[in-house]
Design brief:
The protein is of the alpha+beta class. Helix content is 36%, strand content 20%. The protein contains 5 helices and 3 strands. A 3-stranded antiparallel β-sheet has the order 1-3-2. Strand 2 and strand 3 form a beta hairpin. Helix 2 crosses helix 4. The longest helix is centred in the middle third of the chain and has 19 residues.
Length: 131
């Protein structure tokens, strides 16, 4: 009494899921890398890129990109998606994160259908520009 202690217990049904956490089947990153990011799109893009940290590139179809960012009904034109989501997110990541990101598009006829993101970790993050 008076110590503010909390006791937690987990259902036996959760045990297999909790034990999988130690096997490395998830994406991890230091919170320091995203704490200065303001845009949810920047944070989400950072997370998606970190899943492919070893490769340094990530391929995403436009349809998957819209789904991953929950944009099925927004920014129907690629030019809007690029202007309002992709380029601002990349700009913020380049300025405030540990990544240097570029991207290229792949078209089918005149329609952009795929995105290729290329990224690498910066040698040293300039802490003053991140604030």
């Amino acid at each position: 009494h008076g110590q503010g202690a909390v006791t937690l217990s987990f259902s036996p049904d959760l045990h297999p899921h909790l034990s999988n956490l130690s096997r490395g089947n998830f994406t991890s990153y230091t919170i320091e890398n995203v704490k200065t990011l303001k845009s949810t799109y920047s944070i989400r893009l950072f997370e998606l890129l970190m899943q492919y940290k070893k490769e340094g590139k990530r391929f995403i179809t436009i349809a998957d990109f819209r789904s991953m960012f929950d944009l099925q009904e927004k920014y129907q034109l690629y030019s809007e998606l690029r202007r309002c989501v992709i380029e601002p997110a990349i700009k913020e990541l380049n300025l405030k994160s540990c990544l240097e990101v570029t991207y290229k598009t792949q078209k089918k006829n005149k329609t952009v259908v795929n995105l290729w993101f290329y990224f690498e970790e910066k040698k040293q993050l300039d802490l003053l520009s991140a604030m």
